[in-house]
Amino acid sequence: VNAANISVMPVGDEVWALWEAGSPIALNAADLSTKGIKTLGPDLAHMPFLAHPRREPGGDIWSLGLNGSKAIVWRLGRDGALKSAGMVDLPAASYVHDFSATGRHLILILQPWIQDRMVTPYADSFSWKPELGTKVLVLDKSDLTKRRIYELPAFFAFHYGSAWEESDGTLRFDGCLSPDASFATTNGRNVMKGVWTPEPSPRLAMFALRPDGRATLERTQIAAEFPRTDGRFGGKARRYTVHATDAGEGGPLFHGYATHDWKTGKSDAFDFGGSH
Q1: Is 241 within 8 Å of 224 (Cβ atoms)?
Q2: Calpha distance 194→217 (Å, rounded)
Q3: Residue 145: in which H helix or E strand, if any?
Q4: Cβ neighbours around 87 below 10 Å, total
Q5: Which residues have CB under 8 Å from 107's CB, separation 6+?
Q6: 247 pLDDT above the threshold of 80
Q7: Cα–Cα distance, 177 to 222 (Å, whole number)
Q8: Engineered SS bond to 161: which of 55, 174, 198, 261, CB 3.0-4.6 Å?
Q9: CB-based burial of residue 213 (10 Å sphere; 0-12 exposed, 13-18 middle, 19+ buried)?
Q10: Distances (CA, A) of 182 to 28, 126, 246, 247
Q11: Three-state secondary-structure class, residue 135
């Protein structure tokens, strides 16, 4: 079963429909007719591929495929041709929907929503275990055996912004954090039934992973999701986060557009209204 309904990515003369628990589904870019499951290598049929790959400014595509406490690290060319596929062990069997990357590193955020079975729907395969905290695994793109693990308090998140490396080796990236997985376990499926229990939206935060092994979070009270960066500038330092936002009413999903300036702490937002 492959929903393939989270995001799409143009690759050559195809569009790939993506969902993190299955392989890409290839569509014809001209008319969006379905071509079928994309097999990236003869021995890699049906391997998972994340909903949110990372494209380098040079065109290469990085993605992950999670299965419990193991992950495949995909590297594809601009045309979708497989360059490499390496397996890595993870410190936790976490749910991973998105990740971040610098020019030299892959950054995997392993939150304590842990896969401890395999059932359908996919979300029911996970249990919330906040006592485990959050682990951040940093891998060297050129050698996946080179790794560092950082520790942070428990949180839940779907999406992260692009990362960059500062002159002292600190890695920074932003994300949209919730205190637990209640949207994933309850409200996300309820809203499809026309039912909604008011809950706070995710809040914008900035991560700092320091060379001495310390990890810190600069948290804000700004309602935020889907942080976006111009892919041509991936891996470069930036001052702003551009994101979706809500009107602070605790309603489902988002109907505003916003920017946050990390240097001044100022945010600007436009609310399109509840009908958008």
Answers
A1: yes
A2: 35
A3: strand 143-152
A4: 11
A5: 99, 100, 101, 136, 137, 138, 139, 160, 163, 171, 173, 209
A6: no
A7: 10
A8: 174
A9: exposed
A10: 36, 12, 18, 20
A11: strand
Closest to 227 (Cα-Cα) out of 210, 244, 211:
244
pLDDT band at 80 (very low <50, low <70, confident <90, very high): very high
Cβ within 8 Å of residue 232, ≥6 positions away: 57
CA–CA gap between residue 78 and residue 37 (Å, rounded): 19
Buried/exposed code over 147-165 (b: 16+ C-beta within 10 A; e: otherwise): bbebebebbbbbbbbbbbb
Question: Which pLDDT does position 262 carry in this prediction?
Answer: 97
Q: What pTM was estimated for this model as a whole?
A: 0.95
Task: Name the CA dihedral angle for 100, 59, 51, 111, rounded to a multiple of 10 degrees.
Answer: -10
- Given the DSSP bridges, would you call strands 54-55 and 61-67 parallel, antiparallel or unpaired? antiparallel
Reported as a pLDDT band with limits 50, 70 and 90, residue 175 is very high
Residue type, 36: G
Residue 274 pLDDT greater than 80, yes or no? no
Q: Is the pLDDT of residue 275 over 90?
A: no
What are the residues facing 10 on neighbouring strands? 15
Q: Which two tokens stand for residue 13?
A: 């003369």
Q: Give 181's DSSP letter.
A: S
Residues 261, 238: Cα–Cα separation, whole Å: 9
